[in-house]
Design brief:
globular
Length: 539
């Protein structure tokens, strides 16, 4: 089924599950990807790039399950990335086949530096491959996206030739990637304008853009691209992705929403039109941001635009006075427009299971009965400790139930002794994969270090701790603390995440969460050659 876009709206192409997951330490399992995909559908994204099907059996399974569960007739387009190689294209076609609206996104590099050092191919060879592979992809699905990798550094005249060939072979979308985040807004806008003016058949395809934030210019580049004819924006939740990340979906959408009168003329609209420029339900933005942050372990910086903790906070007396008199004095958008509300007290210790489950749905979580049971027990335990239960508390609880990391090691007991005149000592008991309960103690530079030293002695899993981060989910002395850690093993990074009112317990659980991910990887290292991970670099 061919995707039919609305001509006067901007298509939002979300690549959180493909490019976003390539961020070091942000690896997601299939169940976690499915949870995020369902929320992206609620958010209203037009296209979900669900993965890189040829990369591994796990990626193929994730794309296929998302296509089946989320790719309904009234749902988003489900897309898989593929190099311009027949095997990649065949895997992508098979993976997206359950979706009603399906797309194959194929790419090949076009910059001279990539041709010379990476592909070792001539321009003529790239032109022939483009025609052949786009046509091959077209034999499987109608909706084909083609990307000339590193377009931002490609010779414009050669770029025009490649795009003309791709469209002639059947590409319905041509995506222009600023792969290394090198261009400035004026340059990127000029690239899009040049394509509009110099590719003879460009009116037969939608111009898309994809860019990285290495110079902090990705969102600005995209907005300039819109002014020059781009009608699809490839972005990620919270801007996660390789290196400095991608253009952030929430920033792009809210820029187009808040300043729609400015952008209307560039889309041929009445300048005073109040109609939205995207299909995004902005009220779902905040919960989507929180979900992705929780599942990936990638924390959102407090001063992050739109979704940061300080985005709608005012400390200056002058600002506070103005806000109290009229919100528009210092706020250009309403916090409620992204799904934030001021209702902190949501449930209490006397609340029942039905009310709890209903609130979970309102927050965007669809839990199975076993997950509800486990989360409800956690909720009751927390309600006995805290007077006020907030949405943030509930999200922290539920995150632990939907984060389906295989639990090889389980924390049974942790106890620490520390003080300004004592040597920090920790005792832990861990249940191992074979069911044994092993106990050990260790001394560290602090209580958390002691806990980690003891866990290492019990689990005996080689790793290097490279990041330890703690933040409070809610206010008050009884706040839930979130711990995020990253472990390095060989050249890979594994993240762990946990939340608890006891920060030592949260630290131990986060460490074991990461160790479980690492242990699963070690167990599956000896996969056949055909299952080895393929690195994509179109982004």
């Amino acid at each position: 089924m061919k995707f039919q876009p609305n001509p006067d709206r901007i298509i939002i192409f979300d690549t959180t599950l493909r490019d976003g997951e390539q961020c070091p330490g942000a690896t997601l399992n299939v169940d976690e990807k499915l949870v995020i995909a369902r929320q992206l559908a609620r958010l209203g994204v037009d296209v979900i790039e669900a993965g890189f099907a040829i990369a591994s059996h796990g990626d193929f399974d994730a794309v296929s399950r998302i296509a089946e569960a989320v790719g309904t007739e009234d749902g988003p387009v489900i897309c898989s990335l593929a190099r311009s190689v027949k095997g990649d294209i065949e895997a992508a076609a098979k993976a997206v086949s359950p979706a009603f609206h399906r797309r194959i996104h194929t790419f090949i590099a076009t910059s001279d530096i990539h041709l010379q050092y990476k592909l070792k191919k001539t321009r003529s060879e790239v032109l022939d491959i483009t025609s052949e592979m786009v046509a091959y992809a077209k034999s499987f699905v109608d909706d084909i996206e083609f990307s000339p990798e590193d377009a931002g550094r490609s010779d414009p005249e050669f770029l025009y030739q490649v795009l003309e060939r791709a469209i002639a072979a059947g590409a319905t979308t041509v995506n222009i990637p600023d792969t290394v985040g090198y261009t400035t807004p004026a340059e990127f806008g000029a690239i899009i304008k040049g394509i509009k003016e110099n590719v003879p058949n460009i009116d037969q395809a939608i111009i898309s853009v994809h860019g990285h934030n290495d110079l902090g210019l990705a969102v600005a580049n995209f907005l300039e691209a819109v002014k020059n004819g781009a009608r699809q924006l490839e972005c990620t939740i919270n801007g996660i992705g390789e290196r400095a990340g991608n253009a952030a979906l929430e920033e792009l959408v809210m820029a187009l929403h808040v300043r729609r009168q400015y952008f209307n003329p560039f889309l041929g609209r009445d300048p005073e039109s109040e109609a939205s420029l995207t299909n995004i339900d902005t009220r779902q933005i905040y919960k989507t941001s929180r979900l992705v942050s929780n599942l990936t372990g990638m924390l959102v910086q407090p001063n992050k635009a739109i979704v940061g903790a300080n985005a709608f906070a005012h400390e200056s007396g002058i600002h506070q006075d103005g806000i109290l008199k009229h919100k528009r004095t210092y706020e250009i958008m309403d916090a409620q427009s992204i799904g934030l509300n001021d209702n902190l007290i949501v449930l209490g210790k006397h609340s029942g299971r039905h009310a709890f489950q209903s609130r979970m749905r309102e927050l965007g979580f669809e839990l199975t009965d076993p997950e509800v049971n486990k989360a409800f027990i956690r909720f009751k335990e927390l309600a006995d400790k805290k007077k006020e239960i907030t949405d943030w508390d509930l999200e922290a609880i539920v995150k632990d139930e939907i984060q389906q990391t295989p639990e090889l090691f389980h924390l049974e007991f942790v106890q620490v002794s520390c003080g300004n005149q004592a040597r920090p000592t920790a005792t832990v008991t861990v249940r191992t994969p074979d069911g044994q309960e092993l106990t050990d103690a260790a001394i560290g530079t602090g209580p958390v270090d002691a806990v980690y030293q003891a866990i290492n002695r019990v689990t005996n899993v080689p790793n290097e701790l490279i990041e330890f981060s703690v933040q409070s989910v809610t206010a008050g002395i009884d706040a839930i603390g979130e711990v995020t850690i990253r472990l390095r093993y060989q050249d890979r990074v594994f993240s762990g995440h946990a939340a608890n009112t006891d920060i030592i317990v949260a630290s131990a659980q986060a460490y074991l969460n990461a160790l479980n991910r690492l242990s699963v990887f070690i167990q599956t290292q000896s996969v056949p050659q055909s299952q080895e991970v393929v690195q994509s670099s179109v982004s």
